[in-house]
Structures are given as C-alpha cells and as structure tokens.
Write a structure and sequence with these properties.
Elements lengths: L8 H6 L3 E2 L2 E2 H16 L7 H21 L8 H15 L5 H13 L2 H15 L3 H32 L4 H14 L2 H16 L3 H32 L16 H5 L9 H25 L3 H15 L4 H17 L1 H11 L3 H7 L2 H22 L17
Antiparallel strand pairs: 1-2
Helix pairs in contact: 2-3, 3-4, 3-5, 3-15, 4-15, 5-15, 6-9, 6-12, 6-13, 6-14, 7-8, 7-17, 8-9, 8-10, 8-17, 9-10, 10-17, 12-13, 12-14
C-alpha cells in the first residue's frame, strides 16, 4: 500500500517552508508545546515524552547542521546533535524531570539497541546480492592492503604522540574505519560493551570524537580525490564501476520507486528483532559478541537466499524509516546522557587530531589503490557497468 499525497489547501495555510519533514509553523508550535511541558515538569515520563523531546531537538539541530556553511560539509547534523545537548546538560539547561524521561527511553526502553538492529540488519538484507558478492571479491585485496597500511601508520603516529597501541587502535583508528556515527560508532559501542563489560554509552563518549574529527579530514581527503578524478578520469574508470561478464541487467537496471507495504514492514521488523535475539543466543554458545553474530547471521541469510525476498523488502523498509526519522533524535539522546562534555574535551589534543588526520589520509591512499587494482575497469573496455 502506498499513500499518495494529493494537493491539500491546508498546506497553503501552514506554508510550504519546512523544518525537517514538518512545516515550519507547525514545528514551532510543537516545539513550544514540548518546551512548556518540560519546563512545567508535566512531560509524560514514558516513551512518548522521551520521543517528543529527542525528535524535536533532533529535527531542529539536524536542519541547522545542514544549513550552516562549512559545518554542513563536515557532518554538521551529527556534530550538533551530539555536542549541543551535551553542552546543554553540562550547563544544566534541562530539568531533572526531562532528563529522567529521556533516560527511560534511552536506557530502560533501550532505543539504542532497536535503532542499531534496524540499521544493520535492514541495510544488509536490502543490499543487492550480486553487487554484495562480486563487489566484495574485487575490493577485498585493495581494501585489506589499504586498511592495514592505515592502521600501521596510525599506530606509529599514535605511539610518537604518547598513546598506547591499545588506545590508538581501538579508540581512534577503529572508530574512523567504522564509517560514521549511525552505522559505525553505535554498533561498535555494542560490541565493545559485550567484550569489555561496561554499558554502550560509556564507549559512545570515547568513540564519537574520533569519528567527528575523522569525518572532517575525510571530507578534505574526498575533495582532493575528486579533483584528482577530474584531472585523471582513467583512475576512476571514467565513471564505470567494475567489469563483469554476467549479471549485466542487475547492475544496469533502474530501480523504480517501490510501494510501501506496512504489513510487510511489520514482518520485517519482527525479523530484525529475531536476528538480534539470535545473536544474543549464539553469544552464550560461542562467546562472540551478539551484535557481531547478528551481522554474520544476516550476511549468511542474504548470501544463501534463506529469507524470502518480500521479507527482505520489509526489513529494508524498516531500515529506511529508522535512518530517515530516528538517527538524529537518537544522537540527541546520546548527547544528553552518554556524551559528557568534559570527557569529550579531555580527549582532544594535537596528537589526537594528527592521528585522526593521518589515518584518514592513509584511507585516501587506499581509495587510490582501489582505483589502480587489476580488477578495476581498464580503459577502452567494452564490458563495463555504469555507476548509478
């Protein structure tokens, strides 16, 4: 079932200008209602009250992060959604009742685990299977070589600045390699929690600064590589991705808009929950962190086609909803409860920033190595696939 939005005269009344997904005037009204309830200590102390707080702030700061020049190019939404709530808590701008309400949602209801499971499992099951298999085969060698070089370089620089190999690898390099906040730091925090014993929030506070600083350097590195690609288009395959004599249609077919089946989406959500539970059960048997086993189980099921395609679509629909609507609000909750400002400031130093920068630039070299890999598309090849 797909809902088609017909012209509505009420849209003209509220205005077409939006703040996030909500009309600006309506968003201001909602924000006032939530703020008054929080100030008067009558905010519902349940999931509804907690969601109202973090979604209002999440939509607000994500929008600002996308609008501010320079900041919008270095991960502005993530930076603001993590650091501004942390600063507001530090300066005691939130009432204890409001913090308790968000605490119930984030820690007792454990919204963090729910969002991570939807992001990880849903994205894996929603991937194109042929691209997943063939892409991994072709990228394996250059990715491994580039990653190893980046790790060794980061460890060397970290040692020169006085960091231990353990701290440099697990709390600076790995968060950068992990690939961002929503699908990098959050799953990592679960794995670290399962291995090291403390709650995930402790590790989010320690891992997030590296991801934020690394993101800044990654943007700079990407800009340099983009200019290199313009000057030397043959290094990037002239816009072609990989060479394959089979499955041409899979790579070239245009993906049209898919209808949203809400019942199927519910089935996908149930399956995501089942994967999370399976990971927890297997953890008791093999003593490997449950989130890692959850990911492996999803990859195996995707590879073997063990799950009906319709259910994969349902799980992917959950992923799209969560990634679009709940990631920034979740960042707000993490910033309020799990990212103490004094702890974040304490980790920053010249050496810390240098290690992050070196690691990102070595990853840039990894991308160049990938472009030059023998399995990459050669110039003049007639059997190529266009990038979407």
């Amino acid at each position: 079932m797909k809902i088609h939005c017909l012209p509505d005269p009420r849209s003209e009344f509220w205005g077409m200008r939006k703040w996030g997904p909500v009309p600006l005037v309506l968003f201001v009204g909602i924000a006032i209602v939530v703020a008054v309830a929080a100030y008067a200590n009558v905010l519902p102390k349940n999931m509804i009250g907690g969601l109202a707080v973090i979604m209002t702030l999440g939509f607000a700061f994500a929008k600002i992060g996308r609008m501010v020049p320079i900041l919008k190019d270095i991960g502005g939404p993530a930076i603001l959604c993590l650091m501004v709530p942390s600063a507001l808590v530090y300066f005691e701008m939130f009432a204890p009742h409001t913090l308790a309400t968000v605490h119930l949602l984030m820690k007792e209801a454990n919204l963090l685990y729910f969002v991570i499971a939807c992001l990880v499992v849903g994205s894996i099951l929603g991937m194109n299977r042929v691209i997943l298999i063939q892409g991994m085969v072709r990228m394996f060698v250059p990715l491994v070589v580039g990653t190893v070089v980046a790790i060794l370089t980061g460890l060397l620089v970290g040692t020169l600045f006085g960091y231990s190999l353990y701290h440099t690898f697990f709390f600076i390099i790995v968060p950068i390699i992990g690939g961002g906040i929503g699908e990098g730091i959050l799953p990592l925090s679960l794995a670290y929690s399962a291995i090291l014993g403390q709650t995930p929030d402790v590790y989010v506070a320690q891992l997030a600064p590296a991801a934020v600083v690394g993101n800044i350097f990654a943007i700079i590195c990407a800009g340099v590589l983009a200019r290199l690609g313009v000057r030397r288009p043959e290094l990037s395959g002239s816009g072609m991705l990989i060479r394959s004599h089979e499955d041409n249609s899979v790579f070239t077919q245009a993906q049209g808009p898919q209808q949203t089946d809400f019942q199927l989406m519910g089935g996908g959500l149930l399956m995501i929950c089942a994967f999370f539970i399976v990971g927890g059960l297997l953890e008791k048997l093999v003593h490997i962190p449950g989130p890692v086993l959850m990911i492996l189980a999803a990859v195996i099921c995707k590879y073997t086609k063990a799950i009906p395609a319709a259910m994969e679509v349902g799980a992917y629909s959950c992923y799209k909803f969560v990634s679009a609507a709940l990631v920034w609000p979740l960042m707000i909750g993490l910033g309020m409860l799990y990212v103490p400002l004094e702890s974040v400031v304490a980790v920053f130093s010249v050496g810390y920033v240098v290690v992050c920068g070196v690691d990102c630039y070595r990853h840039g070299a990894e991308r160049v190595l990938y472009c030059l890999a023998p399995q990459y598309v050669p110039r003049g090849s007639g059997d190529r696939h266009q990038l979407p």
